[in-house]
Specification:
GO terms for molecular function: endo-1,4-beta-xylanase activity. The chain contains 10 helices and 27 strands. The protein has 515 residues and is α/β, with parallel strands linked by helices. Helix 9 packs parallel to helix 10. The two termini are 13 Å apart.
């Protein structure tokens, strides 16, 4: 049926909000607020303090929290098992110009060595954000703070907050972000050759590619292995070499036992040859891997060695994103070399010296993930407005394969549901003897529990096959994951095939197809 379009009209297309977050949900909304600058005055507590607002705390006074022994601390009562506790507080120190302050938790049954850290300064307030999950309920707990280097300093706290989320509430908040950041509303308008809208046209819509990069490491074991290749490309839209482009793999003797000018010449030759060979073929370069933990080049070439690497890489391949990449950044906060603030400090140092640093790589080698801490750290990185990638995701082989699957799903959901994360790479290159820590399949490509999780999420995070019919406005609306789509529209004896893309944004994307 055709309808003439009036000369002027206002048509408002609405998508039902229930696909975003249930109108029946009355639980807490996660607050992603974070700060990386030191402020003259602390901000107000998140969640108005959360349970600190209703639960009496020992030693609290107007300007902060005083000392428990040698440590400022909170006494916490009746904490529950498997609850996501999100913690934040503002920290100021005296007695030293700076200090790495660690928050820890002690219950009757367990110790959490680190639930959050901050690089605090004298004379201004720094924001610590973290969290924890208990394996057993606790009637009485102590949340306390220490300077990680043991130096005797005064620690003052302000605007503390502790907010609990049940697992179900956490999942609702994750899904809300997925629906608002990984999907987009779309409306297809169908008209005839005269521009009149067509009611009753049938259509099929199929997503043919995904915008979000989700991939895995590969090794030379994939070469000539057609079953492996078919299995890989069926699932992933991104790949990274496991070790094949690392210096020791391509030139096992180059750079060893060299110093000074000879070492610098070898490095320059390495960067020049590699980036010239593959210019514009890679979207990312991890220029100097794990520089928060290792300073081989700085010891031999001076403090600006890494700066030179990045400058050279950018000149040779200016369109490729240059990444820092390190471990124990989101996996834990106990490693003082790679806390979120240590990472940000090093990144800013490079940027200050003119490095075109465009990406944040977080290796993500987990054992048991602390999800509130992971999210808090990602919140801090989000303040930098740089793309964040989880670059080497796996779960420790110290756990059984079922546990690996459970924790892998938790990590992947956490990454995909954080708006600052632009891609996820698994560290699951398959070798005859297995994988680095975690395999998705056996050598015959039969899924292991981790592989089942990946296949389930790949299916969940893709728009299913859609069939629709245009309404009285000649339109059909749907809500789809970002990516490329193929559409076929039929009305009477006419058929039109086309393609379109959903690339993000809060506004509904409109497409018009003529028959």
């Amino acid at each position: 049926m055709h309808q003439d379009i009036p000369f002027f009209c206002l048509i408002v297309f609405l998508l039902i909000g229930s696909s975003l977050v249930s109108p029946l949900y009355d639980g807490p909304i996660y607050d992603s607020t974070a700060y990386t600058e030191c402020k003259e005055q602390p901000e107000e507590a998140l969640y108005q303090g959360g349970i600190f607002q209703s639960q009496s705390q020992s030693w609290v006074y107007e300007d902060g929290i005083s000392f428990y022994g040698y440590m400022p601390s909170f006494l916490l009562h009746n904490l529950t098992q498997d609850t996501m506790y999100c913690f934040s507080v503002w920290v100021k120190i005296e007695g030293s110009s700076s200090g790495k302050i660690r928050a820890s938790l002690q219950t009757e049954n367990e110790t959490h060595n680190c639930i959050g850290t901050v690089s605090a300064k004298s004379g201004c307030w720094s924001f610590l954000k973290g969290g924890f999950v208990l394996n057993q309920p606790s009637n009485f707990s102590i949340l306390f703070f220490q300077n990680t280097n043991g130096e005797d300093i005064s620690i003052e706290l302000a605007s503390p907050s502790l907010k609990p989320f049940t697992k179900e509430q956490w999942r609702v908040n994750q899904q809300y972000i997925i629906n608002t950041k990984r999907k987009q509303a779309a409306t297809v308008h169908v008209s005839d050759i005269k521009g009149r809208r067509v009611q009753g046209a049938t259509m099929t819509i199929e997503q043919v590619s995904k915008e979000f990069p989700f991939g895995s490491a590969i090794a030379n074991t994939i070469l000539g292995n057609l079953p492996y290749q078919n299995w890989f490309v069926k699932r992933f839209n991104a790949a990274v070499f496991e070790n094949e482009l690392k210096w020791y793999a391509t030139e096992p003797n180059q750079g060893k036992n060299l110093t000074g000018i000879q070492l610098q010449a070898a490095i320059d030759s390495r960067i020049q040859s590699l980036l010239s060979q593959y210019k514009e073929e890679f979207i990312h370069w991890d220029v100097s891997n794990e520089m928060l933990h290792y300073d081989f080049y700085e010891q031999r070439l001076g403090p600006d060695a890494t700066l030179h690497f990045f400058e050279t890489a950018h000149k040779l391949d200016p369109l490729t994103t240059l990444f820092m990449n390190d471990f124990n950044v989101v996996e834990t906060c106990s490693d003082v070399n790679s806390t979120v603030d240590a990472y940000i400090s090093r990144l800013r140092e490079l940027q200050h010296n003119g490095v075109f640093m465009d990406g944040i790589g977080l290796e993500s080698h987990f054992t048991v993930p602390n999800l509130p801490l992971v999210r808090a750290i990602l919140d801090k990185f989000a303040t930098l407005d740089l793309p964040v990638w989880l670059t080497e995701v796996d779960i420790s082989k110290t756990l059984d394969k079922d546990a690996q699957g459970i924790y892998l799903e938790e990590v992947l959901r956490e990454g995909f549901s954080h708006p600052s994360v632009n891609g996820i790479m698994l560290w699951t290159a398959l070798h005859p003897e297995g994988c680095y820590e975690m395999c998705l399949t056996d050598n015959d490509f039969r899924n292991l529990p981790a592989g089942d999780v990946v296949d389930k999420l790949l299916q969940e995070w893709q728009t299913g096959f859609i069939e629709g019919v245009t309404d009285e406005h000649g339109s059909f609306s749907f809500y789809g994951f970002l990516g490329d789509y193929r559409i076929s529209v039929r009305y009477e004896n006419r058929t039109e095939n086309s393609t379109f893309s959903l690339s993000g944004g809060q506004e509904t994307k409109h497409f018009t197809i003529g028959l």
